[in-house]
Amino acid sequence: MISKTTLPLLGLPPTETSIIAWWQGQPISHEIFLAQVRQVATELPAHRYAFNLCEDRYLFMVAFAAILWREQTNLLPAYRLSSEIQKIAADYPDSYCLTDHPIIDLPLPQHLIAVSGTGTLDRTIPEIATAQTAVIVFTSGSTGRPCPHPKTWHSLVTGARLAQQRFQFPQPTSIVATVPPQHMYGLETSILLPLVMGLRIHNSRPFFPQDISQTLMAVPPPRLLITTPIHLKACVQSNLSWPALTMIISATAPLSRSLAAQAETVFAAPVWEIYGCTEAGSLASRHPLESDQWQLYDDFWLSQDETNGCYVHGDHLFESVPLQDVIAIDDDRHFRLLGRQHDLINIAGKRASLSDLNRQLNEIAGVADGIFIMPAEHEEQITRLIALVVAPTQDEATILAELAQRLDPTFLPRPLYKVSRLPRNETSKLPQQELIKLLKELATTK
Question: What are the structural domains, with CATH classification, of the chain?
């Protein structure tokens, strides 16, 4: 439990050789980083809130720290769309946008970050108030209005320390991440671990396997890859050679045991999963090849109410957080996921989990990506599942035949659409509105 009223921006003192990032092909020392943060902080507009829209991961971190230094709050929207920012700005009127490149049609004043010079170097680390609201992360609400989730500097530092306790990252570890820093998972792993625990980041966000491989080769070992199951599957199927990794961490979607096994063979490194939510942050981990149980981070505990609803608790959290998953608590430190609360479906009296159906679909040879969709129910007819599949080398009949060997006939998709790609966002998730739009387009062209 942290009892101080302030905590330093950097968790470890800078040294002459300490590096926090690689940017524009060059190592960036902690001294240069602090100088650039100070430079940017003095140039920021005098507002209370800043939309941190920087896409370059290092510049995002500089901006993130400068905003804290000025006692402002980082606003991190789920989507960097003008309409999304406008919705949020209505509730946070004293705000502006901080970017690393000009963005057209932003509804607020735009401040362009620039770090061309290093300024006066020193090793003075600013102290940040533990109670300061460092960031507000937004998720898409069921009503279409973004839902805010505030995080104090105290809670963010605690989260980074708990992750270090769990994984024991060697010093110094080089991080390559495929997820954006505006997402809670990306923020915790690729921004806070370097700030609080002394790890080092590469500024890019590689997307394709070739780019991921080249970025990993550009940083020295020990190397840590922060990614998602979708990126991991693409890398496994790429037939590329990979540099030595210490560990791979995956999150944002369920990771199948078969994909984890393939990845450990290809990368010759352990693959771990993180479980968490925007409201509470990362709170548990597991090694899929060893167990289907999740182990809570230290300082977290779970409880269930009379309806089996599950809540996560932590001294560093604002309040108890309800989880959106159906959970079986095995003991004080371990639990199993049984499915999302809205993931369990009932068709003609038979029950299934959409997550399990998706897993079965994605394990079929030749399927690069796929998802089952439960359409709106109609009283006059039996609901039929729909499936969207990316499978360049397979036809619909072959995929359906394989599914018939795996699933009860009730859950076979009718129809199954082959598509060139699924409308995944930056964290590999599938926004509901994008799926509805795609289904309407497919229905009119079929």
Answer: 6-338 (3.40.50.12780), 344-445 (3.30.300.30)
